[in-house]
Amino acid sequence: MKLRTILRTTIGLGLVAALLAGCTSDPLADQFRAGDNKNYIAGDGTVTEFALGSRPGFEAFVGATESGQVLDSSAFEGNVIVMNWWYSACAPCRAEASDLALLSVEFEDSVQFVGVNVRDTAETALAFDRNFGIEYPSLIDAQSGQVSLAFTGVVSPQAVPTTIVIDRDGKVASRILGRIEASILRTLIQTVVDQ
To answer: Are β-strands 138-140 and 62-64 bridged in parallel, bridged antiparallel, or unpaired?
Structure first.
């Protein structure tokens, strides 16, 4: 008799937990389950700012850019950096490319922009640069994933585009998951430049 009561209680609790889990929504998981074959999971534009003293760091990395140059993360020291994870067939990446190009010119005296291409060949990335007027370098990370791994816990490789702002101390000051809004990114950059 007690076993039957325990089983009913356990089944009842499991059913309640399943129903409650169905009430919550994870937009990235929902996109994955949708199976719409768009070949990327877009972030929802969520902006995260990290307070001074609790900003995450990242691992050192070295990578080749689309033009064949070598970029070492040690070159970031003492500089404000904006990094954008992208690839050419990603619709939100294409939609934000012109804004990123304009912001890189606007902040050219105080900020270094760097792209991280997660899928394309160097030739495809260069064609994208020409098409959208992008003059800053992009690391080609499709084969090694080394750059993305350096930001584990900060940048989800499934959410493209992702844009982060790195402060002069080499810490991530802010992150946008999904397509940028130019005015928001401008404010995030200016905040770090002014610190």
So the answer is: unpaired
